[in-house]
User: Which sequence fits this backbone?
């Protein structure tokens, strides 16, 4: 078949002359297996159903398109948060800018070190959740990452981490093509928050595998870099044990191409997961949230809240699925995706899906697209708020609902404050 | 203060004339009431004066302190001192009442070249005004008008008026949806704001609000025109006989 052949050719072109990183036997085997998956699936093409609304070409092509570095002169996001800093520059760990990799109740190590260790807890997880996530839908870019990523962190939380681990992705080179792969294990009853921010590279491919054991809690808050020309394909694979909690929020402002996939498996009863995102696009901007939540245990709760504000031809995509397996009784599933289109040139594509095999479930989904409410705008203006500022107030209010999914109010307020600042700066030209 | 001359207004999207030649002169410190049956053009007049989109002025002028307001943006009119208390105040989820008030006040001050108000002064100002209107902390914390009862929404309008201190207040059917107690609270709020420099245009269908906010002049509007002007007694006449007699008389 010509299509499959083209996809495999694209894979060969991408991996040609890219030797796999060397490590311990288990790591080499995991990478070789991942490479075999990439070869057999091929890389995504325009005709893949799963890429119907997002053209994967620039994420797939052998060399990344150039992306200039945005100098903002602003204080770093999460800069005021007490955190353990782990810095990567164009996808390479930078010990000089990072804190010492040590913290109470966690074990944290560079992936390259962990992968070179013969006996390591990460070996049961590296590529394992990614592999599980390949069914029922292929995610070749994630397999590519497992095969090629040299760097990243592996974190094991054994208790309540006293502060968040903050992964900082700096972008310095116009032509960098970075892969990072993080493996996180939250042990029974442990608690960990991971923050991410920054553009990372001209083109960034990131995988985060998160295994949350029974009663564990994991929070994830990510602010993607604002470099206009950057491209990112990210995957989060999570597996949740009994009564565990996994909450993830991503803010996307700018970036010419972003595909964020989140694949979550609820495997223990009474597990809870919330995935949320807020995206703000202006002009050449394509942002795609693709979420797949599988309920495979009873009495679990899942919630997806995605909001996008688009203008000047920006494009937003949401593909969200809730799959409820036959035994997942009393599932409570919720999904909402909304876009605010500030002009007639912008577009939002939404594909909400429910697939339910259990009979005692509560699942709802909704999707809306709309313009700014003129009545609200007039009300604000009639009180003296200038049009542009009034519009921004309504935009922030619209996005706030997604930001409310962040449990830590300090983190949510920081991101809201940033959004307000960026919008005010934009108004002032 | 406000001078309207020969104002003609049609709907922008339809060839439908709503206001067909209104003349009105409002002096500083005065309260004028505009009464009239449904569909007479009262609310349209308030929207046109405050700058709502969707209307086209086909003839005439409206000046505020000698300044043509019809070409101004709504926010410019507000900064100049014009305030419309809405008949149906909108709910704005996600925008806190206090944030909204403060943004509005500072935007107006900025437009007039004044400094922004300090947080402490602002809090003090709002607390004082809110107390008079029996608006509690809880209402101030909520998003603008979200989950407010009809009466609470109207009180919130008057709170905004008290904080923003406009010079010309247009009250569009502020009495609609209010019970007697709520109406008294709102009317007292308005009366507290009456000064020799501040004028009011009170639009209402019923006379009852005018028992509380006693007007200097009453206009009867019908079919896009002011058909009769008189003192407060004119409102009582409407109350007793309805609009029918007056309309017949001027027909």
Assistant:
């Amino acid at each position: 078949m010509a299509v499959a052949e083209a996809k495999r050719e694209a894979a060969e072109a991408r991996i040609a002359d890219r030797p796999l990183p060397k490590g311990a036997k288990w790591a080499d085997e995991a990478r070789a297996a991942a490479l075999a998956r990439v070869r057999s699936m091929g890389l995504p093409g325009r005709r893949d159903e799963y890429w119907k609304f997002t053209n994967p070409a620039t994420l797939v092509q052998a060399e990344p398109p150039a992306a200039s570095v945005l100098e903002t002169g602003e204080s770093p996001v999460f800069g005021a948060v007490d955190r353990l800093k782990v810095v990567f520059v164009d996808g390479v760990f930078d010990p000089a800018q990072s804190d010492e990799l040590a913290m109470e109740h966690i074990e944290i190590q560079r992936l390259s070190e962990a992968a070179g260790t013969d006996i390591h807890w990460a070996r049961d997880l590296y590529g394992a959740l990614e592999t599980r996530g390949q069914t029922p839908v292929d995610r070749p870019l994630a397999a590519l990452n497992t095969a090629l990523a040299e760097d990243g962190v592996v974190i094991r939380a054994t208790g309540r981490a006293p502060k968040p681990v903050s992964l900082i992705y700096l972008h310095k080179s116009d032509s960098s093509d970075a892969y990072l792969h993080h493996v996180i294990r939250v042990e029974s009853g442990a608690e960990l928050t991971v923050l991410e921010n920054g553009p990372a590279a001209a083109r960034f491919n990131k995988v985060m595998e998160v295994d949350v054991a029974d009663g564990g809690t994991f929070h994830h808050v990510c602010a993607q870099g604002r470099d206009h020309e950057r491209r990112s394909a990210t995957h989060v694979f999570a597996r949740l044990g009994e009564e565990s909690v996994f909450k993830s929020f991503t803010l996307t402002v700018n970036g010419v191409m972003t595909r964020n996939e989140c694949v979550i498996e609820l495997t223990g009863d009474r597990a809870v997961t919330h995935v949320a995102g807020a995206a703000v696009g202006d002009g050449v901007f394509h942002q795609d949230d693709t979420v797949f939540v599988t309920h495979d245990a009873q009495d679990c709760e899942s919630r997806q809240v995605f909001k996008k504000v688009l203008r000047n031809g920006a494009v937003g995509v949401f593909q969200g699925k809730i799959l409820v397996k036959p035994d997942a009784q009393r599932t409570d599933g919720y999904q909402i995706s909304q876009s605010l289109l500030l002009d007639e040139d912008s577009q939002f594509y939404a594909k909400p899906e429910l697939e339910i095999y259990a009979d005692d479930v509560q699942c709802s989904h909704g999707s809306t697209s709309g313009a700014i409410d003129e009545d609200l705008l007039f009300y604000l203006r009639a009180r003296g708020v200038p049009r542009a500022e009034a519009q921004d107030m309504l935009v922030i209010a619209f996005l706030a609902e997604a930001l409310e999914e962040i449990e830590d109010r300090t983190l949510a307020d920081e991101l809201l404050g940033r959004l307000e600042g960026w919008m005010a700066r934009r108004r002032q030209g | 203060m406000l001078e309207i001359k020969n104002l003609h207004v049609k709907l922008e999207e339809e060839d439908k004339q709503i206001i067909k030649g209104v003349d009105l002169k409002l002096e500083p410190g005065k309260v004028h009431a505009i009464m009239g049956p449904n569909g007479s053009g009262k609310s349209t007049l308030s929207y046109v004066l405050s700058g709502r989109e969707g209307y086209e002025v086909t003839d005439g002028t409206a000046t505020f302190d000698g300044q043509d307001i019809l070409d101004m943006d709504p926010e410019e009119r507000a900064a100049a001192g014009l305030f419309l208390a809405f008949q149906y105040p909108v709910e704005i989820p996600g925008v806190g009442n206090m944030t909204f008030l403060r943004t509005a006040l500072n935007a107006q001050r900025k437009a007039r070249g004044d400094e922004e108000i300090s947080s402490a002064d602002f809090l003090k100002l709002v607390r004082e005004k809110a107390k008079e209107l029996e608006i509690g902390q809880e209402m101030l914390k909520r998003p603008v008008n979200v989950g407010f009862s009809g009466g609470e929404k109207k009180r919130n309008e008057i709170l905004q008026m008290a904080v923003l201190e406009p010079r010309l207040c247009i009250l569009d059917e502020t009495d609609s949806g209010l019970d007697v107690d709520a109406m008294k609270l709102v009317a007292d709020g308005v009366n507290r704001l009456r000064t020799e420099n501040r004028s009011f245009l009170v639009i209402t269908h019923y006379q009852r609000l005018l028992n509380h906010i006693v007007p200097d002049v009453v206009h009867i509007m019908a079919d896009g025109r002011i058909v009769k002007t008189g003192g407060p007694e004119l409102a009582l006449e409407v109350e007793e006989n309805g609009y029918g007699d007056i309309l017949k008389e001027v027909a």
Notes: The two ends of chain B are 31 Å apart (CA to CA). The longest helix of chain B spans residues 233-250. Residues 96-165 of chain B form one domain. The first strand of chain B starts at residue 2 and ends at 11.
